[in-house]
Amino acid sequence: MAATRFVERLNEQIAYEFAASQQYIANAVYYDAETLPRLAAFFYAQALEERNHAMMMVQYLLDADADVAIPGVSAPETTFADVVAPVALALDQEKRVSDQIAALVGVAREEGDFQSEQFMQWFLKEQVEEVSSMNDLLTIVERLADRPMDIEDWLAREGGGEGDDPTAPTAAGGAV
Q: Domains in the chain, ordered, with CATH?
């Protein structure tokens, strides 16, 4: 059984993951409204990914016979000053999530909860990729802020997804 303190913190993380999903939908809607479909598609995909991260955590808690708390989340930021702002917000969010994931690993380790620590290893790896990807996108968006169609071209050329990761934890409900 998962350590009580880890379960509490993982339930908090589920809220953060769902909030990140909502924020990425808001980012996508902003770019859709600006007629930047590739940026919109990128953030719609990120929203699904964050939702799936939450559902992976839900499934872990279910498998560990632990209580699952599905949280409400605060409203996301929906207005942005320019095309750079949503990406800058996303990078800050990914860095914060990286810190949260590392703290969760620390709690599992402190509690001697080896199964939960092992479960979190995938998320540590994922966050390195997420921060790197968002950092690259921010660099491009800052560089091309006055030429947003060039950002779209870059995403068309370089912004392809990595595909499914066969090492990813199972998500509750068969999340896609």
A: 4-174 (1.20.1260.10)
